[in-house]
Fold each of these.
Amino acid sequence: MISFTHAFKLLFIRALKQTTRPIAALLPSFFMPFFFFVVNSAGFKSVAKLPGFTGSNYLAFYAPVALLMAVFFTSGDAGFEMMLDITSGYFEKLLLTPVPRYAILLPRIAAMAVRAMAQALIMLLLLRAFGAPYHGGFVGTILLFGLVAIFSMGWAGIGLTLAALSRSPRVLQSTFVLTFPLTFVTTAQLPLNLLPHGYRIAVLMNPVTYILEGARSIMLTGPDPAKVTTAYIVALAFMALTSASSLLSFRKLSH
Amino acid sequence: MIKASSLTKIYKGGFKAVDEISFFVKEGEFFGFLGPNGAGKTTTMRILATLDRPTSGKVEVDGFDVVKNPSAVRMRIGFAMQAVGLDDMASARENLLLMGQLYGLSKVEAHKRCDELLNLFALEESANRFVSTYSGGMRRRLDVAAALMHHSKILFLDEPTEGLDPAGRRIIWKYLKDLNNSGTTILLTTHYMEEADFLVGNLAIINKGHIVASGTPKELKDQIGGSKLFLHLMEPVAAETLICDAFPGTTCSEEERYLVVDLKNGPSDVQRIFELLGQKRIAIAEFEMRSPSLEDVFIKFTGEHFEDEAPRNRDPYLTMRQR
């Protein structure tokens, strides 16, 4: 059996290539968040004048949502890529090789984190070019990209779990609808204090809220220790949960 | 080298794909499973390659139990599956290099082997193109090449020439013969009679999950009877009497326009029959010699016709025909 690290390296490079081919397939993960950013930041501009609204303007308030949305769209591809391997028969080819089983799955998650960070960087530059402020500084940037990586691995785990369990592209496709409630049943459009009571409960139950608040604090004011710590704890717990489920379902798939 | 005892596989829903089969493949042997679609060949192969688990029975590959020690089995085998499995968004070269390295070849070794196989399977010119642009035949050749990357001790080939044109098939046959001669143990499944006849040393005929006959192709065909000579003559009745008198024990019969002579001594009788007919000035319009085929063997042991999807042209090794 070849070593885990060697197999991981080989399959990580392959996963990185797979996730960027064809290049045109990367565009929707930029287009959709940017579209929402432009439309919402213009359409809800006057929200910034509401009493109790925290932040300088709505464009700045909404920019972290666009960033997180890009990560959502990117990480969702992990399941689709695995599904492609399953339906094309390539996955069984990998199972036949004498590599540790988890060296087949984990590089895919790691590659997704790298791609998410690269896309987050491009998105950040794009948002800056359109006037979104950024006050993260060096430490904040490291923390932001760390958060993006962890969250992307967590979201990738959901796609991978469903791909392994269902082996059905249609079931996997249905995860797309989860993206919207998870993104928007948060403080994406309004600060928590401006949300109606019932809705606020739903928002507080959504883990993405805390991750968004952490990212927002980094981008708008520089890292707020309490919000960033909470974001990291939630993101790590989310990642641990979905990674465990993807590993278990992968184990079932590969015997 | 490969030993299966009472191997059974029952899928969910109760379908019994393989039913208590046992077989043994010696080291260096070229062994074949011949049978129609759905006979249980692929299921057996997948169990041997550790992709599926048996419901019951025991299987060992190179001394390792496929259930208890699948990693050791995987180290020793190469497997070209029935369904082509390639990374479509990678080039042929990338596919081969990754497979080679995942089986432990160094980068240098993998590159060298990759070049050899691309050349052998006539894929050098398209080596850097994405596999998604390949034709079905090219994909099949690449898939077989991927299974050959790491010089495995044992090679499993599940209908490896399915969908290939005759030229592509011959290239693979020749390579597999050479590979087997150099010591690789090969287990092949096929529903092409010609392929089994040309390649394998020993074969098992499998039908509906059971092995119904096994032996060398010759042994199996000998159980059917000897070769037959089909003669289209100008004076068939005279010739029939002549031949039967000259070769006691030989039986002659008529089939459509042919006089069919059952050759008791095999092809050596043919020249003597021609000499005899020549002496009596009986003109031969057409002749054909047929050896029993594996299809005949299959029909004998199963009572069914083989749904062979191979081209119907007979193999030149089996048939002589002159007009």
Amino acid sequence: MKPVYIAGAGMTQFGRSEWTLMQLASVASLAALHHANLGETPVDGVVVANMGAARVNRQTALGSALVDQLALYPATAESVENGPASGASAFKVGVQAIASGMADVVLVTGVERMRVVNGLEGTDFVASLSHPEAEYIYGVTLPALAGMFARLVMDKFGVERKHLAMVAIKNHENAAKNPYAHIRQTVTMEGILTLPEAAVNNPLIADPLHMFDCCPVSDGAASLVLVSEDVAAKLGGPRVRVAGIGQATDTHAVHEREDPTDLKSVRLAAGTAFDRAGLKPQDVDVVELHDAFTILEIAESEASGFFPRGEGHKALERGETRLDGVLPINPSGGLKAKGHPVGATGVAQLVELVWQLRGECDARQVKDAKVAYACNFGGFGNNVVASVLQREA
Amino acid sequence: MSDKVYGMKCNSCGTVSYPKHAVCPNCRNETFEEVAIGGEGKVLTYTDVYALAIEYDTRYLRLAIVELDDGIRVTGQLLDEEPKLGMRVKTILGTVRQSGETAIQGLQFVSV
């Protein structure tokens, strides 16, 4: 495989947007293209990640539509729908195109515009990724799967509600330093857990998970420009290399997994990504995890190999995953506070990491970050893409 | 609309799987017989979910994963008022979702 570099990264503000799907995608794409500063070098291909547009925006074939918006014809175009892992899957497709020699420059853009429908419709379109006969018909939604998972993990490993709140507090604090974040408001342990009014501020969503354990529903887009070694050399500037990608699947119905508290697909995807990178979890300086629910940040931090099983909440409690800790997790604010436009998320995680590796994150910059890791968690763990990025001197 | 919930029993290795797959997850054999899923078991985990999908006009749904005594796990609706981890339940068949004119039948759990 040929080496692949990320030459540019950009995104829109996450939150509620009045822009159309293609406006969101175009703004993020142009930001990434300007960041890469390609000059006369043509874009060979475009890959668009999205989950719900066919249903909630009544638009399909987004890859072709984005090529048209950006007047990149006759560039190749693809659309990738892979549930909540669509973003990193599209990234993988782009990386493969360059690694195989079929392309020298690929634009990867993730986009979702899901605030256009009401909450029930929004929750339902995401729930349609669950098993149709064994889960969906019972009213299973993603929060329900997360609630059942959280109850098991909390019972087994002694994770308490205060630990879940610590994830939220940390990620809201980080998002307050991120101008692109959906929610830029800090929260306190008193406000969401201990004061009597916390019960009103922070209602149940899927017992034991409360509102501040769940990501918001966001519109937004994020974009990366991938280039071959030749193009990277021509462009100059900071060099961020795609060191390794791993992906793994698991059973569709969560109840069929031997141990439903074990995020096996995360473990396998992370293992492959690190093997391919020739690096270890201990080499990582900055991390973006798929904290659609607070419990997932804790569980993924273990399954990715950063902490032993059942110890993630202890590392969190010790402050190790804070912006000033030994292993900052979700400096962007994570899905929890930066927001979660589903198809954009996997790309947005990598956008943050590229900026971190280039030292462009201002108030939330992790000092001297050289190696970065992202986990994009699809389904409820039935399809996970892990990526390792490395800054070359 | 079927009046039971079915899994599959592999004709080669005898493994029972629920839900069905086209290939046996244990031995990759491709022929099966249908077996009705249900009976008694214990609650492995549960939640009261307030973030509901379309077609529900209730405030919340109580969902659970139950491990049946024959080792098969199932997801369904828990009807008990005081759910607890590990509690003994049995499966019944009831309407689990109303989709337009169609009342979808599925597994519900009641305490024994």
